[in-house]
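pinging the channel bc i need a second pair of eyes. not urgent but kinda urgent?? the chain im working w is below, pasted from the shared doc
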Amino acid sequence: MSTPLQVPVSLQGDPHHGLRARWNALAERLTRLVAHDALALATRVGVAAIFFYSGRTKVQGFLTLTDSAYELFRTEYKLPLVPPEIAAHLAAYSEHLFPLLLVLGIFTRLSALALLGMTLVIQVFVYPDAWPTHLSWAALLLYLVGRGGGRLSLDHALGIH
């Protein structure tokens, strides 16, 4: 009888064992090649772009909210408990600040958590049928919340975990 860490004698000559070993070796090389630092940077920039461009549609100039942004929050978004005028400002400012922080890699976990909260609000109260899109955003944001910004971030340079 074999233990969980031993390969049974019956598999040692099995051609699939060699294939599995080659696959695992390839997977190890890919893990080293595509390190967390590269994944974190790509994730930070990718998810930041989604939210930043959404924020830009709500403002003109630097951060002046457009009439259409207010109207969007009055008629389409209709968040409970938050007046549309306040919600529009909170969303527009958040969609500019947190993506900027993500790109710089400063307060990465906090910024990703804030955008994850925004994603949850959008999913629950605004576009509940858009869950595949929101799930992909949430997965990217959860990666950053759980692993941080990586070595290619200001967090790392400043010793912030």
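so The mean pLDDT is 92. and DSSP finds eight helices and two strands in the chain. — does that match what u expected or am i reading it wrong
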